[in-house]
Amino acid sequence: MGFWEEDHREIAVAELHKKIKEAFEVFDHEVNNTVDVREIGTIVRSLGCCPREGELHDLIAEVEEEEPTGYVRFEKFLPVMTNVLLERRYRPIPEDILLRAFEVLDPLKRGFLSKEELIKYMTEEGEPFSQEEMEEMLSAAIDPESNTIHYKDYVTMMVIDEN
Questions:
Q1: What pLDDT was estimated at residue 16?
Q2: Measured distance between the N- and C-terminal CA atoms of the chain, rounded to whole angstroms
Q3: Cis geometry, peptide bond prior to residue 68 (ω within 30 degrees of 0)
Q4: Number of helices followed by number of strands (H, E) in the chain
């Protein structure tokens, strides 16, 4: 690594540290450089990462305090999250793959799924959604007039802009 590249990397890392600190501080209600462990998923996602549940549990296990449990200190979170971002881990699923997943659930190629179909797939197939996750998704996805999800629109809304 040349001098300029090293300099450039240091600037990039400093910018990441600033983003991570800002995201962490939103949930540091006591202003003591700690957050409730239950906020880590929200913080990680606010930084553009989309870890699966298992990946999130592994990340939490890495940063959670031994005693008292239930808390994460900024000093422990910062280096771990910096590496996650530098390694571009937990990237979001590309739009075309999400769209194909919905199309598989819509064999008639209607361009939409009914609320009932969506609930069935999300609670009976694969890793089931919790009640809370289901309600959150339905409130964002379902068109209240037709009681359907027009999945092309939903996927476009869901996809994180990488820029």
A1: 94
A2: 26
A3: yes
A4: 8, 4
